């Protein structure tokens, strides 16, 4: 399949030298054109840091300390995102890859009408377009996310949380990007609303063809709405697979724990078990497999050797980093 965004060996630290916290460690991840890729992991696993790193929106003291991010436009040569000039980077952020931040629905400016905020995004990138054309575009965008165009004149507080979130999605889609990154856009919303929004996004990408990187704690949502799922633990990707395969059979014990800490999608409700123990301290990472202190299946090499992420011999088409599934072929760098 055709990659649209390739992340290779990405490392992101907070701070420098001995004080650095390694929040993203050698992450390889490929987003294909038009797919929904879900990224899940417990709080602190590095999901947001990965998203901010690849769009170069890291707040200080965040620094990218290694790796590559390559964006493939529909036509034209590949773009090395980490070396873009500030001007090119601004264009890249809305026109090629747009991002809806964690808690974004609260980032609408309360004193401006929805129309002003939506039109500002369009105007910033199409300064020479006619005002009437921009307004028509703003109306279309609202309708696209299921909000009637007469809401344009509303203020954010006049909209429900779900509507505000959909306004943010409309803004993210305004310049028809190839990649939309959503960082936990739904945690503050109720479950019904979460499903509606992610479902709508999956449908929109079918019409518009963009790819989605969707970041959440809620693995059950991802199982339902994404094509592939990547699982992050302690700054690394520990498993990656087509959503249905992952749900049917998790290879990594951590993925298994995550799946069982959510109620089943269908059938009898299971107990919410959670995973015993707590996520690793990034300043004092366990040796070997970072999950070994919590892993019910840990064995001899686990506390000394870091398992590489790769294609296991016993499950073709998937990637896992666990000694239970020895890797026949490491993920190509
Ligand atoms: P959540 O699900 O809670 O959003 P996350 O997976 O997005 O978590 P990140 O926010 O990327 O996790 O954080 C990854 C790690 O980086 C965490 O251990 C966090 O403590 C650390 N971190 C984040 N921001 C900073 C900072 N400004 N300075 C130092 N460490 C930071
Ligand atoms: Fe558990 Fe070992 Fe696999 Fe880590 S490598 S997840 S400790 S079995
Ligand atoms: Mg986060």
UniProtKB/TrEMBL annotation:
Pfam families according to UniProt: ABC_tran (PF00005), oligo_HPY (PF08352)
Signal sequence bounds: none
Gene Ontology biological process terms from the UniProt entry: peptide transport
Chaperone keyword on record: no
Keyword Nucleotide-binding: yes
Record InterPro entries: AAA+_ATPase, ABC_transporter-like_ATP-bd, ABC_transporter-like_CS, Oligopep_ABC_C, P-loop_NTPase
GO molecular function: ATP binding; ATP hydrolysis activity
Start and end residues of each ABC transporter domain: 7-259
Keywords: ATP-binding, Nucleotide-binding, Transport
NCBIfam families membership: oligo_HPY
Family recorded in the similarity comment: Belongs to the ABC transporter superfamily.
PANTHER family for this protein: MALTOSE ABC TRANSPORTER, ATP-BINDING PROTEIN, OLIGOPEPTIDE/DIPEPTIDE ABC TRANSPORTER, ATPASE SUBUNIT
Official protein name in the record: Dipeptide/oligopeptide/nickel ABC transporter ATP-binding protein
